[in-house]
Design brief:
four-stranded antiparallel β-sheet, 13 helices, 57% helix
Length: 293
Amino acid sequence: MTIEEEVIKIQKKLNKISANGAGQDGALDLLKTLQDLPVNLDILTKTRIGMTVNTLRKSSSDEEVISLSKSLIKSWKKFLTGNNKESTPSCPSKSKESDDVKEAELKKKDEERDKKQPVSFPPSNTTDSVRLKSRELLANALRQGKTEEDLEGLASPEELADELEEAIFNEFKNTDSKYKNRVRSRIANLKDPKNPSLKNNFLSGAIQPSKLAIMTADEMASDEMKNLRNRFVKESIDDAQLATVQGTTTDLLKCGKCKQKNCTYTQVQTRSADEPMTTFVLCNHCGNRWKFC
């Protein structure tokens, strides 16, 4: 079994413990095994084991598990930011005491830099200005509302944004209007304060970049919006009026003008196929009309 396969095997067990609240003794043993493995940058990037360990740290109440998780994350973070540098030979003319002082100062500077800088990953693989701007906007959408502590131990928003943009670009092979619309829809959904689960699932690795790149508006929607849309569809099917001019009567919507819940709605596909249909609503009480997206 390769190191990567062993890490993935441990990762699956840790995910199960985090999800089901299983015994923390098992988690501690797995973390100790993980600590002994020669994990490198390639394995960290491919498996995202850092996300798994950080999720376990947040969900655990065992001090040993939390402490060892923090230790692993810290060691990997230093590795990723390139802090494992070879020591430089000391100058024979310098005293040992002077060398010790300089070494302490350098260590302190490294620690301060670790606190300020997020985890960095391999540089961007494109120089196209449109693609670079798209990646910047996607990364900003992922960082919005998140602190550095929230992102600790996870792949950086910049890396995830790069992978997401790459997946979108690979589908269209250019940066035309379809590409831009796809990027805009991802940004809007990731920034939606009413749908935090989409961003959290993406940051934690539950949703892969290749999957988010092709998800429809319905798939990205919050649970509340999905339930509301399902009820709309059910009403439409029951009344057999979805495609009629009359529309479908519902009490799920309240008129902003007269505050009554006596409305009729119709749904029309006015935008691209990966966007939701536009819902036109008519208040049967006062005649007020509006759009519901």
